[in-house]
Specification:
There is one protein chain. The chain is an alpha+beta fold. It folds into two domains: 36 residues; 111 residues, no CATH class. Helices cover 22% and strands 25% of the residues. It is built from two helices and ten strands; from the N terminus they run αβββαβββββββ. The strands form three sheets. Strands 4, 6, 7 and 8 form a four-stranded antiparallel β-sheet that branches. Strand 1 and strand 2 form a beta hairpin.
């Protein structure tokens, strides 16, 4: 009978060690998930009539720039209401980029948060994308002193095909870049 009790104790010890191992794996996964929240990645999205690889936030939201908007010359501000339609891409800590994103990512302090930049141009998401991944409805829209461009993967510039303007049925006529 004592061998049965000993086997039970061994089984209990083994189960305890297994639980600790599982807890350690979950903790490492949680830390990895937190680190990924500061990564600008790449995803395929519909931009106008074409599907393109574009830059996205860690939540998969399309990333945009505004022509003429730089750290030194801010077109999109909280004061002019721009942040309601075009929320800034923000991070806590260091930002990283996935393979396929060209250009230099940076950050700067602004209005109590840290905003992400690409080659010195502030990055934004678009409320009109309805917080859905794979959607880029804002490309080519003109507002707040410039034209909005989704950031194309593999380039440090805007996507080449603007989305149709609401109600117009056609693109804005220009190609990307904007800076």
């Amino acid at each position: 009978m004592s061998s049965g009790i000993l086997s039970g104790r061994r089984l209990l010890a083994f189960a305890g060690v297994a639980m600790l191992a599982i807890a350690a794996v979950l903790a490492v996964m949680a830390m990895g998930a937190g680190a990924a929240s500061n990564t600008i990645g790449v995803k395929t999205a519909k931009v106008g009539a074409r599907r393109q690889s574009i830059a996205v936030t860690s939540k998969g939201l399309s990333v945009y720039t505004l022509s003429g908007d730089t750290r030194q010359h801010m077109e999109c501000t909280k004061g002019n209401g721009c942040f309601s339609a075009w929320p800034p891409v923000t991070v806590k800590g260091k930002v990283t980029k996935a393979a396929g994103i060209k250009g230099k990512l940076g950050t700067f302090k602004r209005n109590g948060f840290t905003q992400v930049t690409l080659n010195g141009h502030p990055l934004y998401t678009f409320a009109g994308d309805d917080h859905r991944a794979g959607v880029a409805n804002g490309n080519g829209l003109v507002s707040f002193g410039g034209t909005w461009h989704v950031v194309a993967a593999g380039k440090a510039k805007a996507a080449s095909t603007p989305a149709p303007m609401p109600g117009s049925g056609s693109g804005s006529g220009g190609s990307g870049g904007g800076w």
